[in-house]
Specification:
With about 575 residues, the chain is of the alpha+beta class. Helix content is about 55%, strand content about 20%. It is built from 18 helices and 16 strands. The strands form 4 sheets. It has a 5-stranded mixed sheet. A 5-stranded mixed sheet has the order 11-13-14-16-15. Helix 12 packs antiparallel against helix 13. The longest helix is centred in the N-terminal third of the chain and has 66 residues. The two termini are about 75 Å apart.
């Protein structure tokens, strides 16, 4: 399970941004749509269910009212009959002769009690039960003993109005019975036997698809039902599978029930559900189309930027995408343009610096062409000079040999302080011979600094510049060149001071500019910047008529070999 989740999250993580936005928009659209659809379906289902229930309640009330009206007819007939004066006279009259009794019954009682049967089809017969009657007469008269054992008799004796009961267990008739008014001497009751069909007739006219109606007694036994689809089911079974509404008939020991199949109840709901799902389907299609269109619009510029980044020309490093909008994508495009411009600038600077370095190395390489031939030649000149007794020539030759040896330095660009100092000593020894010793040189370099490294040919161009533009132009006064080296924290500091003619401040500031006439000083500065960046520095201070001081700052870097130039030359 965890592996599946991790794989799923990985797929989402690697999915294209357009699909991610498309998916998010679909989810954002589907969630409220699903919620609305859910509440709509639930609401429609509840409304349809309530409406169907209300319709069933109305039908049930109509049927119940019809049965109660029929009941009222029978009760009114019963009330009217018990107050008949002729019946009351007969009941109060002593019956001595059988003939007289028979005469009274046939002449008075039979007509009164048989007449309602002709006007009401639902009446089977009317019967008087009295303790004054000893022998039953047809269905009109019966001894009181016939009903005294009934379960409902005690309730009948205390009843103030008509009582509806089942006369027997067949449940084919309903009996409405009440007592005669209490002003006669005998105990007598009048009962109207009504066939059950007279009460179920209103039920037969009920018609509704998927629904039925039935009449049950107080024990939930089905007395009548009009639907064919549930004939063999009990009330409890119907209650499990159907929605049932029950209405108790006020005075009768029966209830009327309307039951409906649940699928019939929701048949209209299913039609409505189909329409709802159709609308939801159209909304879903609209969400898909809109989300696809909007995601394409939103991601179009990002995709254009991605394509531009993927197709950046590796030689020129430019993109052809422009975006002047103020949103995040526009800012990103402009930032990418700036980044490429800065990269191009840096590459150009590094490339040009590399070219300069290669040129310097080429010059050094050219200077190394057959150095042994040069050294051997100088050695021969020195030997010839010594043989001829020319010590000055020998001195100059040796100085020139040391100068080239330290200058070439086996092709290396870095030399020790000791080597640089030997280089400028050799150079100045030659210059002193050339100038007939018309200037003096002072050195102040501590031997503890000899093993630190520095670029070669840093001091020689500066000393040459001091001689040509400083001391050589001075006609009077002391001509002195001072070379000093000391350390300060993590830097070596060289100071070259001459007592020459000096320079104006404007000329001093322009020495390292592009427009400077000489190349030597600017070349030294560019090499220092290339090797050390801002860690190296070269400063000029000059006073016209007094001289010039050049200060060079170089980061301290100890030689890996731990050997000076003398050790190397001996090896």
């Amino acid at each position: 399970m965890k592996h599946w989740i991790a794989d799923f999250l990985s797929r989402i993580h690697n999915m294209k941004y357009r699909r991610k936005i498309n998916g998010v928009m679909i989810i954002v659209g589907l969630v409220p749509l699903a919620i609305v659809a859910f509440f709509m379906i639930s609401g429609f289902r509840k409304i349809l269910s309530e409406r169907e229930r209300e319709s069933m309640e109305v039908s049930l009330k109509q049927v119940s009212d019809s049965i109660e009206r029929q009941e009222d007819v029978y009760v009114n007939l019963l009330t009217y009959t018990v107050f008949d004066s002729e019946l009351q006279d007969i009941l109060d009259k002593p019956q001595k002769e059988k003939y007289d009794v028979y005469y009274d019954y046939t002449k008075t009682v039979d007509p009164v009690l048989n007449m309602p049967k002709f006007y009401h089809d639902g009446i089977d017969h009317l019967t008087i039960y009295s303790d004054n009657i000893q022998i039953a007469h047809d269905t009109t008269l019966a001894p009181l003993a016939e009903i005294e054992e009934k379960s409902w008799f005690q309730e009948l004796k205390t009843a103030q109005s008509a009582l509806w009961v089942w006369p027997d267990d067949s449940h084919e008739q309903l009996l409405s019975i009440r007592s005669f008014p209490g002003f006669h001497e005998s105990e007598a009751y009048l009962g109207v036997y009504c066939n059950l069909q007279s009460f179920t007739d209103p039920l037969q006219y009920f018609e509704k698809e998927g629904a039925g109606i039935m009449m049950i007694d107080d024990g939930n036994h089905i007395l009548f039902q009009n639907a064919d689809f549930a004939q063999n089911m009990t009330y409890d079974e119907l209650a499990d599978e159907y929605m049932i509404l029950t209405q108790k008939i006020s005075s009768l020991p029966v209830s009327v029930c309307i039951y409906m199949e649940k699928k019939a109840i929701y048949q209209e709901f299913m039609v409505m559900l189909g329409w709802i799902l159709l609308v939801v389907g159209f909304c879903l299609l609209a969400i898909l189309l809109i989300s696809r269109y909007m995601s394409r619009i939103l991601v179009r510029r990002i995709e254009a930027l991605t394509r531009s980044v993927d197709t950046v020309d590796p030689e020129y490093r430019t993109i052809c995408l422009e975006d002047d909008s103020k949103d995040e994508i526009g800012i990103l495009v402009r930032s990418f343009h700036r980044m490429l411009d800065e990269i191009n600038t840096l590459i150009r600077e590094v490339y040009e610096g590399k070219i300069r370095q290669q040129r310097q190395e080429m010059k050094a390489l050219q200077a190394q062409i057959n150095p042994h031939f040069l050294y051997n030649t100088l050695s021969v000149i020195n030997w010839k000079a010594l043989a001829a007794g020319q010590d000055d020539i020998s001195h100059v030759t040796l100085a020139l040999s040391d100068f080239y040896r330290t200058t070439l330095n086996k092709g290396k660009s870095l030399i020790t302080v000791e080597s640089e100092l030997l280089n400028i000593r050799s150079y100045l020894d030659i210059q002193l011979v050339m100038h007939d010793d018309d200037f003096t040189v002072e050195y102040d370099v501590n031997e503890s600094l000899y093993l630190y490294k520095m670029p070669k040919l840093v001091l020689q161009p500066l000393i040459e510049n001091a001689l040509e533009h400083g001391l050589n132009l001075k006609d009077e006064g002391e001509k002195k060149l001072s070379i000093r080296c000391y350390e300060e924290k993590n830097r070596l500091i060289w100071k070259i001071t001459d007592t020459g003619v000096g320079m104006e401040p404007e000329v001093c500031q322009s020495l390292m500019s592009v427009n400077a006439k000489g190349y030597g000083v600017r070349n030294v500065n560019e090499r220092l910047e290339l090797l050390y960046g801002n860690s190296a520095q070269m400063l000029f201070a000059s006073t016209p008529g007094k001289g010039t001081t050049v200060t060079v700052y170089i980061p301290k870097q100890l030689s890996e070999s731990g050997k000076g130039i003398i050790d190397e030359m001996e090896n």
